[in-house]
Amino acid sequence: MNDIKLSFGQIEKMKHAIGLGYENMKKNRYCSYRNRYIVSKPDNDWEELVSFGYATKREFEIEKQITYYVSDLGMKYLGALFGCIITEMD
């Protein structure tokens, strides 16, 4: 990968967003059934992930929400970190 260092908190938030857990990993593969992390105000960890290209975000004005998504690059980072292949459900 590259020299970007993520904090434990950032990694945990990315795992939570895609529902990653060892109990639902099969043969070093994980198929993400979701990809979102919803907040009511900007989150510094996620904003940094967006700046690295490991996440994207969308703001919803009416609902006053921000939704962060793990990007393809972020999925590859997590996959390399945990020794698995991560894909998303269609």
Number of strands: 5
Largest sheet: 3 strands, antiparallel
- The CATH topology is Arc Repressor Mutant, subunit A
What structural class do you assign from the helix and strand content? alpha+beta
CATH architecture: Orthogonal Bundle
* Lateral arrangement of strands in the main beta sheet: 2-4-3
Could you list the spans in which at least 5 consecutive residues all have pLDDT below 50?
none
What does the model show?
- This protein has a single domain (8-88), classed as Orthogonal Bundle (Arc Repressor Mutant, subunit A), CATH 1.10.10.
- The chain is built from three helices and five strands.
- It has helices spanning 8-18, 44-52, 72-82; strands at residues 29-32, 37-39, 55-60, 65-70, 85-88.
- The longest helix is centred in the N-terminal third of the chain and has 11 residues, at 8-18.
- The model has no long low-confidence stretch (mean pLDDT 91).
Main attributes?
90 residues, alpha+beta, Arc Repressor Mutant, subunit A, three-stranded antiparallel β-sheet, 3 helices, 5 strands
Provide the fold topology:
Elements: H1 8-18, E1 29-32, E2 37-39, H2 44-52, E3 55-60, E4 65-70, H3 72-82, E5 85-88
Parallel strand pairs: 1-5
Antiparallel strand pairs: 2-4, 3-4
